[in-house]
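URGENT: need a sanity check before tomorrow's submission.

F., can you look over the Flavin-containing monooxygenase record below? I want to be sure the sequence and structure line up before it goes out.
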Amino acid sequence: MKLPEHVETLIVGAGFAGMGLAARMLRDNRAADVVLIERGADIGGTWRDNTYPGCACDVPTALYSYSFAPSADWSHTFARQPEIYDYLKKVAADTGIVDRVVLNCELEAAVWDEDAALWRVRTSRGALTAKTLVAATGALSTPKIPDFPGLDQFSGTTFHSATWNHEHDLRGERVAVIGTGASAVQFVPEIADPADHVTVFQRTPAWVIPRMDRTLPAAQKAVYSRIPVTQKVIRGWVYGFRELLGAAMSHATWVLPAFEAAARLHLRRQVKDPELRRKLTPDFTIGCKRMLLSNDWLRTLDRTDVSLEDSGLVSVTENGVVDGRGVEHKVDTIIFATGFTPTEPPVAHLITGKHGETLAAHWNGSPNAYKGTAVSGFPNLFLMYGPNTNLGHSSIVYMLESQAEYVNDALNTMKRERIDALDVSETVQVHYNKGIQHELQHTVWNKGGCSSWYIDPEGRNSVQWPTFTFKFRSLLEHFDRENYSARKIESVEA
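Structure tokens as predicted:
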């Protein structure tokens, strides 16, 4: 698709978030004036980019999929990356989204024009204006590589797990893996066999529980296909179970010892070396950091050709890496499994509001928004997967569909009332976020005794949603026009 000169709604990003909103808009109106710009060569977002060995979803796919686009083709209860990517491409084709996407088009800047009541947007493929701008770039879209001293001097190969170098052969190599998070637990077991030796550098151990994954039999998939309501029932059951799990993990501290006992048993069964078990045992409450799901991560670390270095990494040399004890490890390849930048989204540096400051400057390292979706001082801007919408127990797709309903209702309200500019009340936004932070104070994420990416540099938990997801959906079921100032070019109304 060619980039237009003007569009009513411009969505930045064509992953689960951007596609979910576009699909909701098109269900209302097939002729909706909406365009998605995508910096990549295809739709799919994180499921297009993350192609590392073993990449898979850690939420059951019965729930980690659009409610409006069920699929009876999943091979496992926890889907692998290639089939999630294929699923998204099919949804894009079936809904007509594919005809609304401009690929290889990266946002460079978006500036609010107060006089004209529109966004002036610059992209890598040209400029355009948009009445409404939606940032749907995701919280886990930009890889983070720490600036270790000497990294630029390393003579070997380096890459991040989110930008896996498939042309590089790891057979017979000495590999350093930096990080022990969700991606590392998936790809380390996959590379242990071809590599000569893998050294995993850990700063903080994580609680690991078994992954209750199974292959979906043909008979079950046939029932899903012929009697679709059965799949809806399973989705509802999975959702209910996950809500109970979330409540237990975040609030019901008396339940946490049971989870910890299960994790300790899993560790004891898979790791025979007592010293290694000690290194892999966290000293914080389970659930404080993201629990990891794996049936082979711990077992892999117990292999003789895999080492765990628990002093972390401090620097890089020409031929290796130096751990926290000052010992140099000779390696051929360094793979960073160091995560992303959820509390410092790069897109925030590109969006400038009505007061002349970027969203990043406005947040000053501590993101917050009204209902995770709107920010005062940034009219006609909506965020998908914004601050305090992340989950530790359920599917982000459920949250994204809730936001899509809210944003779509807001857009319809603007059209119906002929509103040129909507801006959420700063007082309302502050009050909302005080409530969110108050609820978070009682959760394991805030008081579990760990250091996690949920906590921003200001010490606020600007990432997690504190309670049941159905409460979020209820909050966003309808657009609350009364909490926004609405402006028309020719007049101003309260």
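My own read: The radius of gyration is 23 Å. The chain has a mean pLDDT of 94. If you see anything odd, call me.
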